[in-house]
Amino acid sequence: MPSVVEVSQPVAVATAPQPVKQYVPQITQIAPMEKTNFHGIEVINEIVWQGWEPGREYTKNIILKNVNVKTQKIKYRVPSTRFFTTLYPKPVILSAGTSFSLPVTFRPLEKVVYNDKIEFHLKDGSFDVPIRAILPQVDISVPEFLDFNMCAAKDVVHTNFVVKNTGDLETKIEWDVKAPFTIEPSAAILKSGAARQFKATFTPITACVFQGEAVCKYGPDLALGKSTKLEGIGKYPHILVSCAGKPSNSLNSTNHEAEIKFSPTPVGSTIQKWVELHNLAPVRAPYKVQHPSKMSRIDTVFDCPQKEGIVPPMSSVRIPITYSPNTVDTTSTDYFNVVAIGNISKAAIKCVGSSKGPSVHLGAKNVNFMQIDLGAVGTRTVDIINNSEIEASFQFMLDCNESVFKLEKTSGVIRPNTSVTIVMKFVPQNPINYYRRLTCMIHNQGPLFLDLLGTCHSELVKPAVLLSRHLDRYKCHVERGLSVYPPEQLNESVKSGKIELDDAGCLMLPEKSEPEVEKTLPVIPPMDEYFNDGFHCDINNSVPHVSIDTNLADFGNCSNLRVIEDKIINITNHTYGKVTIQWNCGNDQTFSVMPATMDIPPQKSCAFQVTFKPTVPNQFFGAELECFAYYKSLRDYRLVEDNTHCPPWCLTLTCAGQTFQPNNETFLPRLSFDTSRLVFPAVNAKESTYRTLLLTNNGTTPILFDIQKDPTNTYTVKPAKALLKGQQQIFVVKITPNDVKHYKHDLTFRLNDDEKYNKYVELWGSAESPEVVLDTEGVMYFKQTCIGTSSSKEYTIKNVSRIPLRFEWKMVHKDKQRLSVNPSSGIIQPNEMQAHTWSFVPAAEEKYVMKPSLIVWGQGFHSSSSGGKKKQFTVRAIGEGSIGDIRCDNSYIDFGDVVVGSSTSKMISITNNSTCSLHYSLIIDQAMDGPYPEEITRDDKLALILDRTEGVLPARSRHNILATVKPIRRVNYQFAISYKLITPMGQVVDSKVQEPQHLCHVLTTGVFPVMAVSDARCYGSAVGISKKQLWALFSLDNLNLCLDSDPSSEELRYSVATRHSHARRPPVYTRAIMDFNFSAAPLDSEPCVVNLMFENTGTVATEWSFLFPTDLQLELEYWAETGEFDEDELHEMKVMDNKLFSIEPQQGKLEPGECKTVSFTYRHTMAGTDRLPVLLKLARGREILLNFIGVTVEPERKYIHFPSNKHMFTPVAVGEKVSPKQVYELYNGGATPVKFNFDLAPLELLRQENFDQPIFECLTPVGEIPPGRSFSVEWRFSPIEAKTYMIDVPIHVHNGDTAIVTFTGVGFDRRVMGDTMPVTDQQDLTGVPGVQSVSVPGQLMYLSQERLSFGNLPLFSRARRMVFVTNKAKDRDVSFEWHVTSQADAQCLSISPVRGRLSPGESRMCRVVFIACGVPSFYDLDLVCEATDEMEMDKYKKELAAWEKEKYRQKYEFCITENDLDADKRLSDDVEIVERPSSHLRSLEEKKMEAEGELTKYKTLPPIKQLSPDERKALESRKKKKDSELWEKPSPPVPFLLHLGLTARTHDIREFQATFPEEYSNYFVDRSLSERAIKIAGKKQALAKSTSTIIPCSTGEADVISGVLSNVLRGLLDDTNFHDAVKKVINDDIPYYAQIGEKPATAPPIEMRAGPSGKTKSVQEDSPREDISRVSSATLPISPEATPPSSAGSKKSQKSEKKKSRKTKTPTKHTVEEVEKVKKEGEKIKEKQNLKKLPEFGNVAESIIENTMLNIMTEALSEEFNITARPRFIALPKRTASAKSRQSIQNNCKKN
């Protein structure tokens, strides 16, 4: 789109006209009266008077119409001026739909404008009706804007518009407008109300936006004016040419030439082809077709009938090109230029065509009539065959009336590919031999020759029969010069041996007598043979044997028939024998010769008299007389030898005359020529060429033609004068130019001897010499070229001569090394322009000047001729060698992460800032950084593909190279791209050219789509499973490991999810197989729902899908199903048909960093173990086969769920004194409690095999697991060798199955493994996330962490962690309460607060304390936080209160009515209040209690009977009625369970100190815990001793004892007095018995240990409030180097006292009181030091510090202060000096 012309370009903008006095009064257009509704009254807007005169009266009416539905009352006020009057104002009442007419009268007094109004008042408001009287005014209406849209530059666009006189007066208008806009006519006169059409013209000069303004002046003296804005856009047109049928989308801006090739065309015909002109611009494009060579060349054969036109915008037109060849067998080249308007663009059309003439030949070369008797007639035929595709005109040059040979047809037309048979007759008049070489002239081809032979015998004279062989021998004798000798002389010579016979029977001179080799006669062209007869030109091809001095006897006009002068002709005998002349014409004919027969001696001449005897006046006469000359010795066959027999010679004489009387005009010739312009082919100077001209007689009278001779003798014609008796005459025109120039001649045909019938044919010919025109005046410039490379340039030469030229480029040896041309030689046709490609190859950085020469000469011409003479043209070629370099815009190009197997592309832009084009080759060096060894990646293909690695970069330009990376491995790729300058044209020693140069670095990383499980959550039947257990059941660590690993090639066979198999169980191409174990649950329990949070941990998008077996199977038609289903297939079909497993969503796409929760559901609707293979497919990534496993347990079945039959213990170092305890968990997946026991026999066998050392110890081999709960079985693994131990242990389930689990333990040597085997608190190094990411429906409270790791701890120490509970509900309070899953966990774990309540959005900090006690162990604990919705709890409490109230009412309230007297008999229909079990766990406990309760509460079973349908229906109705009346007890809301996992590992103090020496100082070891542990161990040992003596009893005794004890206990439970006594004891205060006892006077010794910094620390710990066993201090390590701080302090004090005593000269004496005082102070100090050494003091100090930190955290959480805020510095005011300080300062001043 062209840009808008700025002010700085005034040339392209229509400048605004000069300011005109535009005083335009306010003219109101008189529009039709419009009506308006005012408050329900419809009235006209105003009243206007026009065309009034002063002194008169004018009246108009105002019509008021009530269009409202109610009656209205109107009041009005009369006009204020006296010029308008109306009726006296009175109220007007208008009913609905009625009207009132108010007349208004106008009485003007002078010619001015009057304005007034009438006011109307209604109940709802008022309105005015203006009344005006205006004067006649002048006004016109013109369009505000004229848009010419787009127009081609220098083209014209017209638009018409109308100007209307809207005023009252006639006005003259005149337009003022600036270029490039014009308006015609520029002025006009418009009468009032008249309109005139104007034409606006837009003629842009350049391509830009033109904006102008046209001012229309009007009014008196053209003082007023209105303007019209004009706008148009100029665009440059551009026309592209193409051959017809070529689409425009294949054209480009460089397509400036279209070449049209015409097929060989017959001469004289015209063919036409079309050229398409394409206008790709949005404006029309006027064009002109120029033919530059039409005026300068004489042989123009191409023409374009359509010289100009218009190409519509965005379309094309076709123009014709015609080809009319005028010369046979020539190739013509010409050019047309299609020029857009204004010569803005030019496109060339190159036309190439070749011509062809007819191809005609005779069926025979000679025709022999043989022997004919005198008076007889011989007949023969000959065929004229046209083998071409064009018509051919022919003419036999024979006058059949006068010749002995008569043809049925002498002229005619032969159609293409046909033949014509000519019947020939032989009518001899004399008994002689006859021979004539007859010419058949073919138009546009040339003559054909036919030899006619014949022999006539009479009774007396019988010459020898002339045969064709005699003719052949005669031609041979002519070549040998023997034909001029008479036969008798030749016969004698043969007999005498002077002449010999050759093999063909021809005579020949002996070689001895003729040593020189005979020269054969040159081959004479047919046209030369025909034309060069010595009469029509001065040249004769051969010396005639017999000649006639003239070939034309013209008698002219013979008006007097009686007196006609005869003509005398002479015949000369040039032979050495006597010759007889025999004329065939008789005396009775019009033309005759006397004598008819005559003998001419050798070398003599004889005269003959030609007589003209016309018999008819006013007639043309003409004839070709024929005579035969022969050796007289050939008159009789007896005198003839066969070897010397020769044919006669035929001479012809053309006779013409006419007998028109003086007052009679000759006949009107009606004829036509085949062309009016005859162009000859170019020839050399003084050489000849021929053309044929066809004259057709269209009339019925003969035509006498006489061709005027060319005075310059350049052109000659044969025949020149004769009488045309037939239909056509073929003339042969010959041109023989003397000089190299063009020759033009008007060939004049004088017809019928009258000048007024003259016809003219324009003749053009030329003699040519080689002439070419060099482009750019013979100077050729090459652009700067890089050394060693070539730059090409096309240099054009044009053949301006009319002959085809052969050319050759010549160069000196020095220039040949740097310069070359293609083609170096060839042919250039006439008028052809050839572009030769030159190549310049510099070898150094310097400037070159070379001078190649072009040598041209005419093709096929003799070197001495004008056209064949060589000419030389010199060209000056200038070039310069240079060198440059290539740069890349970005030195580092990062493709980012690309999926392996896919590709991505970017453009690399390289720039050449030098002045020469550079040939470059790109080199790629690939480096990989990844986990693969070099041996594997060494043979990898390049992962970087460039769309071009070689090319030419032009000077000061850039190339965009498409770089595509296709990584094949998951590695980091780094490609170094360098370039090397190519010197294909020579070796260059420059190092910059030879060595590769760095270009840029390309970086990319091959990745696979990956994702990982970042969190897991389960609910439903699996609510009791902790996150760690779920992580293990679903093998999520292995899944994440597989998802992050590389897929195999088989997995990448299908990049996306594809149905690829018709098998019922489609094959899987992955080795990554793992289980998704949904654990176990009772039948019909809640579905097990597992939510997994999948996170895209990679950098590319990941498309994933879970594919069931049916998703991989190709669906077949029913008839294609074959075979039976096996057991596994049936099982899978059952699982899928019942939808036991479901996944939602089943597929999706994750962007990098995006997370998505996928829900896996297993429904417990069918008992048994269910398995289903599911394929997890990542698009272009891994395939992982997931075996979904779920177990549904029958309600009464005892079942322990074993996820795996193998268990791996944490590796333990060999030589551990106390091996840590480890845990193996068992999960009860059934609905009933399960008892189990481990078979320890394999452990005992292993112990015996290992030197009676317990390798595996099961500490809790027997136990009971509640339903839906887990039990932690404690094990201890104590290896004695660094190896792997494996043992199969049977696990017996009471009333259930037995499972065998393989336990594996690895013992390692710490000295060998070193740091490679870290000591951790994680048993299996699990990757369970610590923060919840997956949301669960109904979850209101969240934990800040779900996994706490306490790490490695020494025994008898404490570790603390903080966990925050947050209520994320917006409108609900939530209460929480912490529980431990096992009561044993409470001994080492405490949390505070245990319970609490959170308002919406509130968070609370919970402190978790882990106490390391007991023996070294692994801890994996699970805390459960029950979160209860308090809103639901309040609702439950209200419903429970209402239920209990109703229960109380029904219990004590009854109503006695007579209608219900039999209520006691209908016990089954009583309304019952049933309590719903509060939770699943509680209901199971109640069932247990009932099972173990009294045995007396059994009921008899109902009788077994079959119910009838009616009874069954009644039973169901009663049940429905009972259910409708039943009001169940409200159940409390089920709390939401949150699991908090804790891991820790405890070590023996000495082991911890050795293993973690740097961390030991971070823990506080409480020795009181060890003391308590010793006491508890002692109690256990005493209990064991006391229980070691077990009293054996029988089963009956045990039953009695149990029965008695149960009755006693049951009696105590039923005894109310016992209950009251227990309550009283509980409520009594505790007596102070413990405080009365005396404490030991001396405290136990306190062990000290040195910290890592050398300072001593006391081993202290509190916890008097916790009931935890203590271990004696003997187990603590004792540091002998540790010294109490008090002793260090006493030493320092002693040293200071010694120094003081040394300073004092006399020792001081102390009193006894002072000594006692000092002793008491020392005792107090020792008492304080001893107090600090107590464990209780350390515990108190630790508690104080802990609570202080806790208070700080609590205050920070409640936002009482900000921990992270920067500290504030308080600037105190400057303190003034005290009186003492001021006095001291003054004293110091005085001293100074």
TrEMBL record:
InterPro entries for the chain: CFAP65, HYDIN_VesB_CFA65-like_Ig, Ig-like_fold, Ig_CFAP65-like_9th, Ig_CFAP65_10th, Ig_CFAP65_4th, Ig_CFAP65_7th, Ig_CFAP65_8th
Keywords: Cell projection, Cilium, Cytoplasm, Flagellum
Region (Disordered): 1509-1528, 1643-1721
Any one Gene Ontology cellular component term annotated for this protein: motile cilium
PROSITE patterns: MSP
Domain MSP intervals: 664-782
Locations listed in the record: Cell projection, Cilium, Flagellum; Cytoplasm
Residue ranges with Basic residues bias: 1697-1708
Compositional bias per record (Basic and acidic residues), positions renumbered to this chain: 1658-1669, 1710-1721
Protein name: Cilia- and flagella-associated protein 65-like isoform X2
The encoding gene: LOC111124004
